[in-house]
Structure formats: C-alpha cells, structure tokens
Amino acid sequence: MVSRARLEWETLQSGQPPVIRVGTATCGRSAGAFKTLTALRSAAGNLGLDCRIMEVGCLGLCYAEPVVSIAAAFRPQVLYGWVDESRALEIMEKDLVKGEPVEEYALGTLGRGRVKQIPRLSQTDVFKHQVRRILKRCGMIDPACLSHYLANNGYSGLKKAVDMGWEEIIEAVTASGLRGRGGAGFATGVKWGFCRKAEGEPKYLICNADEGDPGAFMNRSLLEGDPHALIEGMVIAGKGIGASRGFIYCRAEYPLALERLETAIKQARRAGFLGADIMGSGFDFDITIKKGAGAFVCGEETALIASIEGRRGMPRPRPPFPAVSGLWGKPTIINNVETLASVALILQQGAKWYADFGSEKSKGTKTFALVGEVKRPGLVEVPLGITIREMIFDIGGGVRGDKEFKAVQTGGPSGGCIPARLQDTPVDYDSLTAVGSIMGSGGMVVMNTDSCMVDVAKYFLEFTQKESCGGCVPCRLGTKQMLDILEDITEGKGSIEDLDILEELCRAVKGSALCGLGQTAPNPVLSTIRYFKSEYLAHIVEKKCPARVCRALISYFIDPEACAGCGSCIKSCPAGAVSGRKKKVHVIDQSKCIRCGACMEKCPARFHAVQCIPGKIF
C-alpha cells in the first residue's frame, strides 16, 4: 500500500501531467477559492489542457488567499497568491500554455530547481524563520486522500508503535519534552503515565478540538489540511495509555474539519489503521466524533467530559483529575489536536529529532494564528523560544500601515496583553507566564496604537462573561461586576476607587473560580492595568480615550480652515448634528453628535476637515 502511494505521489510531483493545487480550507473559501477553482476547471477545459486540479488545505498564507500552486514538468512548483477568477485564467494561459510562470503574481517556488526571478518560498521572509513540521503536509496533500498521507511518511509512527510496549511509547513522548499544546503546558508523557497506572477500566482518550479562542484557528486548519495526522497520533496515544476507544470533541461550527475527519476515519478503518486488530497487532482502537455546540466552557476538560456524557457542559472541581477519574468515572486523557499530531511526529522521527528545536523547558515547534494589525496574517509554525519581535516583524512583516506596534495578546481571553517594550520576550510557556500572559492554544493578536487597551480588556471580558456557565459565584457574578466597572470607565463614569476594586475582584475571581475559564478571565484586565495603567487613568481622571476608541470620551469637530463646505458630512450624519451652507464652513452640534464617525469617514480625503480628538468638547 505504501509503495503504491509513493509511486502515485512521485507521479504527482513530476508535473506530468501538470498539477494545480487550490487551497480550499475555510480561509481560502472565505476569500473566494471556489470561484477560483471553478474558473481553473473551466479554463482547463476551454484551453484543452491535460492537467489535474486538486483541493488542498491551508498553507498558512491566509493574507494571500486564494492561493494556487502549479507543478509542471522539469521545474519546481510555483505558488501564486490573490488568485481571483480573472487572474486564474491569465495564469493558466501564461504558465501552462506558454510555459512562462507569472512572476508578478508568484509568491515563491516549492521543490528542487529554480525559476528565474521567483524566490524559493522557503527563503522568503514569511517562511525562512519558520520550521514547518506539524504543518508540513498542509497545503501540499489532498486531505481526503489517504495515499498522499502514506506517501509522506504517514502512519510510519503507528507502524513503530504497534511493536512497542506502552512503557516505550510513554518514554518516547516523555523524552521528547512535549508539553500540552492546549494551553496548560503539562508534560504529555507524565500525564499519560498517570492515566496508564490509574486503577479502573476501560480507559479513554479524548481529543479536544473545541477551539473557541477569538482569533485562533490552528487546530481547525490542521484538521482541514491533514486529518490523518490526528488519527495516527490518537491511535498511538490509545496504545500508550491502554485505551481502546477515543473521542474527538469538535464544535459543529467547523463543518469542513468534521467532513474531512469523517472521511479520514473511514479511510483509516478500511486500511486497518483504526478499528479491530490494527495492523495485525491485536490492538483495538476506534474513534467517535462528538459534535459540540460551540460553548467556550466546553474547552475545559471536565465540562467537555460532561458534554460527551450527554450532560450540560459544566465543569466540576478537581481533583480527581480526568487522568484518574474522567469519562464515565474512568481514567481519561484529554489532549488537543496539535499535541496528538505531535505524538505521531515523535514516533515517526524520534524523540531527539523532535527536541532539536525549542528552548530548554519548551521543546519542539508550535503553531500560531498570527492575526490582528499585522501585514501578513496567517498560520505559522516556529521553534519555541523565538521572540515576539521575530514573530511580528520578521514573519508577519510588521504592523499594517506601518503604524506603531503597541501590544500583542497571546492565549486568547485566558491570556494577557504584552506591551511593545517586551517584544524581545521569548515565545515559550515559562517566558509568557513570567510577563503575565500564557501561550494558550496559539492565538496571537497584534495591536497598533489605534487600540484602546481598556476597550480591549472589556472585549475579552465580555466574551468570557457571556461564555461563563454560571456554575460558580466568582465567575458568574465576579466577571459581571468587573465588566460593569470597565463599561463605566469607557463611558467616562469611572473613579480612581474603581481601579482598586477592579484589581481586588480580579484576584478574588482568579483564586476562587471553579475552572480554568473563570480563573484566567481576569488576565486581560490585570495585564492591561499592569502595562497600560496610564490609559485607565486618562479615561477616569481626564475623561479622555487616548486611542480615540471609546465613543463617550471622544469628540468630532470640523477644522474651519480645511472645510470646503461640500456637504458630504451633512448628508452622512444620522443625527442631524452637522449644519452649514454650501461652500461655507460647516459645524458639528456637540449636543446632538452621537460620535459615530460617519462625518469623518465621508469627508473627502483631499479636505481632511473632520477630525477626531480625545475628550469631549462642550
């Protein structure tokens, strides 16, 4: 089976006939990849081209979607970005008919050889700082094709694992230094050892694919681009901990990921990699998909277990920890998608290979969703220990519009905001914790000076407050009180005493909430007070929002020297607050102004007469 798969893959790589790969993961589809796909198929028919067009997952270049690569004979693949319908036809005609790769649309080349004037993708700014291991196959293989996975070393880790004892498997994972990629960062091998030695049968394995952090899409992209990597990792983990049944808990909001997982599970069963007597070893292990309803709290282990059991997703006190008493009261291991996919790599390549990258206490590579005000948002994989500066400026290209970098939020609503002055902080578990944030599952939101940090704290607290299950008083009422105070501050109603109360509430909720969601909910508030206290004081004392975000603490006015009296602002104002005759200076009635900003938006750029300032004009 593997030999046949490799032969098929080599034929595909030869470019005879040419192969066109189209990124149709969720990011690609959002950017119009299906229209591009249809255009490519139509063009191939009209041009009479003998070629193969296939769908692949996300290569990580989300900023350049739709992304298309063309592999033709005797030259490397050429990757093109922003390929809309018209560009698709032009590329087909020039690249495949005339044999002239289109330099102006090319992002880089993949594979051996060179194409004149087009750089190797691995040498471009966005890729040369990355080390792609987990994401190696994403964007390259057809995720619905088992033979593509097999041809690229897939299931070779499982082949080794079936001949290993459980002690050897756990030892290999422990030696690799792998820590849970879901956020807590607990040593995976140690956690597996607790479960294996725990009393009680049967034992269970759960993959937590309930990715709910705002701005995070690492796990979804991996499931959409390389689903067999997770299945292989789960089977290995099942043998390690002594489980014969596993669950993948994935939110129903990820339809493509679920579709590709279901396809991969069926393929793995048919091929003997899943189910009874796996690879003739006598080991049985099968996987059931459990669709979640999209509740953030169900990312917490015990709430997730309750949901699988058919109960409301509510957390419970720990201990006992799930490794001792989990699903239906039996020993259970819960790992996220990236952790389990890493296990497959460790068994394929060895623990030492895995630990070659990373810092002393944070081994390996980690995927991140680099988003926000960054020039090149997307999915990246880097060695742990890389600095925030390298992530944002070397890989991400810097801040969009060349504005000043202000802060980065890591770890989603459970993490914190790290200021620009700490941009040389290494990105690893312990360094991020030391500056008041966490790694989380890998969300990284970049902010510029247009971001109000009080408003940012309010945004994340609104999220956790709405997602709170309400099961414990500190989370249910504490986050509500904290949110009320933040709303008062952003509306100009805050007092200095509120800051003390806010910090006191944060400490109380952190120390007494039942689960991780409540315990970490204060982190964005605490980190913004710690690093951006002057902004809180500006809101409270000066009644100004320095970033010009909080509507109650800003004003719009018309510069009389710049106003041409064109009337654009009058037409756009929904409150009737702007007045003035044609070709005469216009004015804004501050008592009527609702500070929506429509007047400034519609003011012609050549005049730039409407301006926004911090504070209120009376």
Word description of this protein:
- The protein has about 625 residues and is of the alpha/beta class.
- It has 25 helices and 18 strands.
- The model has no long low-confidence stretch (mean pLDDT about 95).
Summarize the structure.
By secondary structure, this protein is α/β, with parallel strands linked by helices. The protein has 25 helices and 18 strands. The strands form 5 sheets. A 5-stranded mixed beta sheet has the order 2-1-3-4-5.
Topology diagram in text:
Elements: H1 2-14, E1 19-23, H2 26-30, H3 33-47, E2 52-56, E3 68-71, E4 77-80, H4 85-97, E5 106-110, H5 125-128, H6 146-151, H7 156-161, H8 166-176, H9 188-197, E6 203-209, H10 218-225, H11 227-241, E7 243-251, H12 255-271, E8 286-292, H13 301-308, E9 332-336, H14 337-349, H15 351-355, E10 365-372, E11 378-383, H16 388-395, E12 405-410, E13 416-419, H17 429-434, E14 443-448, H18 453-467, H19 473-490, H20 496-512, H21 516-520, H22 523-531, H23 533-540, E15 554-558, H24 568-572, E16 578-579, E17 587-588, H25 598-602, E18 610-614
Parallel strand pairs: 1-2, 6-7, 6-9, 7-8, 10-14
Antiparallel strand pairs: 1-3, 3-4, 4-5, 10-11, 12-13, 12-14, 15-18, 16-17
Helix pairs in contact: 3-4, 8-9, 8-11, 10-11, 10-12, 11-14, 18-19, 18-22, 19-20, 20-22, 22-23
